[in-house]
Fold:
Amino acid sequence: MLEVQDVVTSYGMIQALKGVSLAARTGEVTCILGPNGAGKTTLLYTIAGILRPRSGSVRFEGRELAGVPADQVVRRGISLVPENRLVFAHMTVRENLLAGAYARLGRDGGGVKVDLEAMLERFPILRQRAGQAAGTLSGGEQQMLAVARALMARPRLLMMDEPSLGLAPMIVEQIFEIVAALNREGITVLLVEQNARLALSIAHHAYLLEQGRIAFRGTPSEVSANEAISRAYLGIKRG
Structure:
């Protein structure tokens, strides 16, 4: 579904991604692990069209995305749930959800209404808070809103950047249950996450990004079997 090949993305003279290649297969959860500053968010922003790569290819369902504006990337079927949620704080929950469907409002008004009701059904707390300013929600509620807002674009690929960040453990488990459920329903997921143990529990494939380069790729079981990685990211000590 998604193929990233030899992508280089820079901030001025500083290379954040140094020839990154990876793939996300249709119907699977692919997770990207790595320390802070490794380039994980830069990678998602590059795929989403927020950043333009200096070189390399980003292909989605066979079509090139490198250099395509972010709004067109959404129209092609990719949505991003950004780090720290980034909800529109002064807009209501309902307005945030409608903003997620901005690319469809002029041509699919009926479908937007159906999807809005579906999101309020899936996330009952958002129905209760529908008229409330999004900035007054709890962290967990904002994360649910951010996911629902992304789903309003009807993505085939959902990218999530650190969905567990700053949330209580019980809420984190709920969020990951939601991600797993969405994947079972057919949505392909590209997940960046610091909580490696939880991410690997729902992933089909994993990549380790370090200093702007892919340092490892494999299945969750292969990640766990790698002594250095399991010690660094899973807290497993052998011997």
Remarks:
- DSSP finds ten helices and ten strands in the chain.
- Residues 164 and 195 are 7 Å apart (CA to CA).
- The radius of gyration is 18 Å.
